[in-house]
Amino acid sequence: MRFLSECAAAVRRALPDKCPLFVRISASDWTEGGWDVEQSVELARRLKRLGVDVIDCSSGGNIEKAKVPVGPGYQVPFAERIRREADIATAAVGMITAPAQADAIIRSGHADLALLARRTAARALLAAARRPRARPRHGLAGAIPARRPDRRARAHAGHEID
């Protein structure tokens, strides 16, 4: 928690007050004895005190053999609990695939935001692929990622290296 807390505090100091600060967390490892929603609530309380505005509530992906019960809106309960117990705005993610589903999550008070990233991006890429001479934008699937200069080149360019 310390590393994330220090990073969040530093980013908050660097951002203008009018700019919201989102932090994405894995609210559960989905394993017994691993990171859980109770710890996530405490982390969200700490981050709120440091000036974080929204907790983006994801889960899993950290432990290879975790049994994640994937299904429509399966991570929404994390957003709801963190919102309620930490008194901070939350974003729900995880198989939210339709605008009506996102609207229901927000209207019911389960979260303040509903994020539809993968499905929306996939639809946009499919539509772009069907157009003549279309090309994915912003480094999405199929695009070649931009090369990052190595440490030596960045140092020569005057960038600080830790």
Query: Structural class from helices and strands?
Result: alpha/beta
CATH class: Alpha Beta
Mean pLDDT: 84
The helix content is 40-55%
How many β strands by DSSP?
A: 4
Task: State the order of secondary-structure elements, H for helix, E for strand.
Answer: HEHEHEHEHH
Physical arrangement of strands within the biggest beta sheet: 1-2-3-4
Task: Give the low-pLDDT segments.
Answer: 142-162
Quick one: biggest sheet? 4 strands, parallel
The radius of gyration is: 19 Å
Give the termini separation.
21 Å
Strand content: 5-15%
What is the total domain count? Answer: 1
CATH superfamily: Aldolase class I
What does the overall shape look like? globular
CATH-defined architecture: Alpha-Beta Barrel
Tally the helices: what do you get?
6
